[in-house]
Amino acid sequence: MSPIFVTGTGTEVGKTVVAAAAAHTLAADGASVAVFKPCVTGLDELPADRLPDHELLRLAAGSSQGDDEIAPYRYGPPASPHLAAALAGEEVDPGRLREAARAAAARAEEIVCEGVGGLLVPLAGNYLVRDLAVELGYPLAIAATPGLGTINHTLLTVEVARDAGLEVAAVVLTPWPAEPSGVEHSNRETIAALGAVEVLTLPRLDLAAPDSWPELRFSRRR
Ligand SMILES: Nc1ncnc2c1ncn2[C@@H]1O[C@H](COP(=O)(O)OP(=O)(O)OP(=O)(O)O)[C@@H](O)[C@H]1O
Ligand SMILES: [Mg+2]
Asked: Which of 65, 132, 138, 158 has the fewest CB atoms found within 10 Å of its own CB?
């Protein structure tokens, strides 16, 4: 198995697209691929032309998992998981997340997880996305935007990850423009140098046509 946990510098930075491209690459190699996302929120305000994260991940992986197997907690309001759960009169159970992720991994040859927001987003109480990532122990891919502001957000994320003992497999800048500017090239080089991390890029994908996507692979140290 080459599991990966895709986090990001924040919300709406391309985590799902990166996770989908990674899952599709593994599936194209012939592996059975499970996908997992602890909690999906914002289903009430999803644009009509956009699939919810768990559906795009399932499509990309060619998986037959049910919604509950991919994303045990799903809520309408666009809010942090801890708040979305509270608004529904519930609490996210970390043990249930752990078990669901492990069950998904056990039923497939590969697993790709997507986090929620960034590493310090609360899932329940003081149990953060970082804590789930640590319990699962998968290497991280960090989705980040290519433009202004990304150096700080990305290096903060790399530092929090390493402080928690997590391996950072790569940063992925997305969507990487067809003709990158000087700032974008410099951001890529600066993050690689200051973060001592591999920085990959992902071009803008046609999300409705997974077979047109380029491969996205992470080199592994273990
Ligand atoms: N390489 C790419 N190709 C196409 N669209 C992209 C790409 N990268 C980012 N986007 C677009 O940016 C937006 C955010 O991407 P995405 O949904 O993957 O972010 P996210 O970090 O998973 O968000 P969330 O925090 O809601 O889970 C989407 O509209 C997505 O289509
Ligand atoms: Mg997402």
From this structure: 65
Ligand 2 centroid from CA 187, angstroms = 23
pLDDT confidence of residue 131: 98
- Catalogue the active-site residues: 37
Q: Give the residue, by CA position, lying nearest to ligand 1 atom 26.
A: 12
User: For position 107, what pLDDT does the model report?
Assistant: 96
The arithmetic mean of pLDDT across residues 48-73, rounded, is 97
Omega of the bond leading into 175 within 30 degrees of 0 (cis): yes
Mean pLDDT (whole number) for 120-128: 97
Q: Which of 43, 101, 117 is nearest to 69 (CA)?
A: 101
Inter-axis angle of helices 53-61 and 15-28, to 10 degrees?
A: 20
Neighbours of ion ligand 2 (CB under 5 A): 15-16, 53
Taking each continuous run of H as one helix and of E as one strand, the counts in the chain are 8, 10
Which amino acid type is present at position 151? I
Give the closest ligand to the alpha carbon of residue 116.
1
For residue 6, give the 3-state DSSP assignment: strand
Residue 1 has pLDDT above 90, yes or no: no
**pLDDT confidence of residue 222:** 42
Residue 220, pLDDT score: 65
Ligand 1 site-directed mutation target among 7, 11, 16, most atoms within 8 Å of CB: 16
